[in-house]
Amino acid sequence: MHKPLFTVARFEVKTLLRSWFFRIFSLIAVGLLLAFNIGAATEIGNANWLIE
Fold it and tell me: Where does the chain cross the membrane (predicted)?
C-alpha cells in the first residue's frame, strides 16, 4: 500500500543529497540550532553584559 510513497521518497532523498546547496544549508541550519541550544541551556547564554 505504501510502496509507491516510499519509492518517491527514496528518489527525493537521493536527489536532495546530491545537491550541494542542500548539504551546505543543512550544515548551517544544524550548526545554528546547536549553538542556540547550547546558549539557551548553559551558562554561556546567561552572560551578564554591562549595558550603559
Answer: 20-40
Q: Write out pLDDT tens, residues 1-52.
A: 678 899 999 999 899 888 888 889 999 999 999 999 988 888 776 666 666 5
Does this model's pTM top 0.85? My answer is no
- Report CA 37 to chain centroid distance, whole Å: 12
End-to-end CA, the chain = 65
**Residue 31: inside a domain:** yes
5-33 b/e (C-beta count within 10 Å ≥ 16 → b): eeeeeeeeeeeeeeeeeeeeeeeeeeeee
Q: Is residue 22 part of a domain?
A: yes
**5 within some domain:** no
